[in-house]
Amino acid sequence: MTFKELIIQRQSVRRYDARPVETEKISLCLEAARLSPSASNSQPWRFIVVDQDPLRTEVAKATFTDIQLINKFTVQAPVMVVIVIEKARWFTRLAMQVKKKEWPLIDIGIAAEHFCLQAAELGLGTCMIGWFDEKKLQKLLHIPAGKQVGLVITLGYPQEGYPLRKKIRKSMEEVVTFNRY
Fold it and tell me: Which residue intervals define the domain Nitroreductase in the entry (predicted)?
């Protein structure tokens, strides 16, 4: 498929088949994320793959509450990938202070999208989750104190018949200008 077709195919999937994801496919997705660019090549990430129960279910449950149920679908996903933000290189950290930019957040976003695009090419579905109980994830996954969880990604085969939704986006005129705002 072309790159544009891949972009159109990639969507947030919220219904998964129970079948497990092959280790080789998980590895390809991780390799795509690992190879993504980062500020000063800091590679400020660690990917924790959770694919065994009961831990996977507990990680999924950390993405919703009794009040916020929107992520309840995560318990269906056979794989959860937790991205931990690692410390950037010293000169990147210095530049972050000077420029008041959080480059590691941008970096993990790029890595996550590489992961999700690779998954889509392999016929897998993903959903990036930003709402989660960080303290619970840190405890469940033995994440060292001082480390920050940046994102959680669900991974699995979309449920049979899961619809490819039309992307509703702002027009090019609304989001693009040349040479000035």
Answer: 7-157
Looking at residue 52, the DSSP 8-state letter turns out to be S
Rg (CA), the chain: 17
What average pLDDT score do residues 83-105 get?
A: 79
pLDDT at 93: 73
Domain boundaries, the chain: 16-158
In 3D, which of 154, 164, 104, 162 has the Cα closest to residue 129? 154
CA separation for the pair 181, 178 (Å, rounded):
8
**At which residue do the structure tokens 């994320």 appear?**
33
Q: Are strands 79-85 and 148-156 parallel, antiparallel or unpaired?
A: antiparallel
Convert the pLDDT of each residue in 48-93 to its tens digit. Answer: 999 999 999 999 999 998 888 889 999 999 999 999 999 876 677 7
* Distance, CA of 152 to chain centre: 5
Residue 120, token pair as written in the block = 């889509």
Q: What are phi and psi of 174, to 5 degrees?
A: -80, -20
Record the tokens describing residue 4, joined without a space: 């544009």
Greatest CA separation found in the chain? 54
CATH 3.40.109.10, applies to 16-158 = yes
Quick one: which of 152, 160, 75 has its CA closest to 123? 160
